[in-house]
Design a protein that fits this description.
26% strand; 12 strands; 37% helix; 2 domains; 389 residues; five-stranded antiparallel sheet; 11 helices
Length: 389
């Protein structure tokens, strides 16, 4: 007979694993916390593992939003991993803590003392891209579709809960929907990974693969991609320690602000904003939870895709030339470079500011000034001598 209090055990495991330390835990030794976690696991294993010998794994998804862009539909989906054993069900997923606006995850709040300080690069960026790993002890009614992927052993499920709590959840606390793909043949197809619900599912599937379980979906499953294309992405976290780097990032954000209202009206205009950035020869940046990157943009700059979810050992390869789109999805793999003009005069002013913000510029101005002063002094001296004669 299956244990009647299994959901309570799952909830206990979740609280011990995922919940942040509360006031009642302050001062507890870390070793005691680990022992409590394993004590709960052993209790679960001893009483219920026989009834959970094989778990059915499902890919769950539901529609977040839908638009009609250029007379074609475009949908955005949320996904999670669902488990079932008899009547017992649960869902793990990864979600942003603030779902009111995607732009909050991509544009930081700028904290400045005054405009002059900000112009010098003395400002702070506060990101509102928090995310959390969640466990629901039922199949949430919001999920519209479940596709069976395969089965795992009860022992693997216990290991999976530990992996979520000890490895994934502590290192994933931000939601970043953009991934950077390389346009360079022969190189790594993904330069910077995204960090959203679909990536949690992908990482979980790789965990099952390394535990010896192969997933075979009963029907096609897909995931959203927001792909930024580049020739290179260089980590520049240390760049933010200097005012010059902060000025560069600030110019990138100011350039995006020129398009912000249009992006809010039709989010696909973000590609046009990146084309402007590329034309103005401004550096582009991407913020992630643990690192910051300077991205060398390249056509087609940005794509929105709904692609097949890669089942391990297959890996996602989001190169522009390899996009295969299912019926009903929307994307464009071509960027219109001939009919894109950066806004005048602010775009041109940003480009001029970027090219003048180099140490060679003040040095050159100083040298020219010194030479001018010397020549002016010599001319004045010659004029004085001529007058005296």
């Amino acid at each position: 007979m299956r244990s009647a209090w299994l959901p309570t055990q799952l909830l206990l495991l979740l609280l011990l694993h995922l919940a942040p330390a509360g006031a009642d835990e302050e001062g507890k030794d870390e070793e005691v916390k680990v022992q409590n976690v394993y004590r709960a696991r052993e209790l679960w294993r001893a009483s219920s593992i026989r009834d959970w010998s094989w778990q059915c794994v499902f890919y769950g998804e539901f529609l977040l939003a839908s638009w009609v862009l250029d007379h074609a539909p475009w949908n955005a989906y949320h996904s999670g991993l669902a488990f079932r054993n008899g009547d017992e069900k649960c869902v793990y997923d990864y979600s942003p803590t603030d779902v009111s606006s995607v732009m909050k995850m991509l544009m930081p709040e700028i904290i400045i003392q005054d405009n002059f300080s900000a112009l010098l690069g003395n400002y702070e960026m506060k990101w509102h891209d928090g995310a959390r790993t969640q466990l629901t002890l039922e199949w949430n009614k919001a999920y519209e579709r479940f596709v069976r992927l395969g089965t795992i052993s009860g022992a693997t499920f216990v290991k999976f809960t530990d992996w979520v709590a000890k490895e994934f959840a502590p290192t994933h606390n931000a939601f970043q929907p953009i991934e950077v793909a390389s346009v360079t043949p022969g190189g790594s197809p993904v330069l910077v990974r995204s960090s959203m619900c679909h990536d949690f599912v992908t990482d979980a599937l790789w965990f099952f693969y390394h535990e010896g379980h192969r997933m075979q979906p009963e029907s096609h499953v897909f995931r959203d991609h927001i792909i930024m294309y580049a020739t290179d992405a260089t980590e520049v976290s240390s760049l933010l320690e200097g005012l010059h780097g902060m000025r560069q990032w600030g110019r990138y954000l100011r350039q995006l602000e020129l398009s912000l209202e249009r992006i809010r009206q039709q989010f696909t205009f973000a590609r046009e904003a990146l084309i402007w950035n590329w034309r103005l020869r401004l550096p582009a940046f991407l913020h992630t939870e643990h690192r910051s990157y300077q991205v060398q943009l390249s056509p087609p700059f940005l794509n929105y895709c709904y692609l097949p979810l890669a089942m391990p050992p297959e890996a996602s390869k989001p190169r522009a030339q390899s996009l295969v789109l299912p019926s009903g999805s929307w994307t464009s793999t071509l960027a219109n470079l001939t009919n894109s003009t950066p806004p005048w005069p602010w775009g041109t002013m940003l480009s001029t500011e970027e090219h003048l913000d180099r140490w060679e510029v003040p040095v050159a101005i100083l040298l020219v000034t010194l030479v001018g002063v010397v020549f002016a002094a010599d001319s004045a001296k010659e004029a004085t001598s001529s007058a005296q004669e």
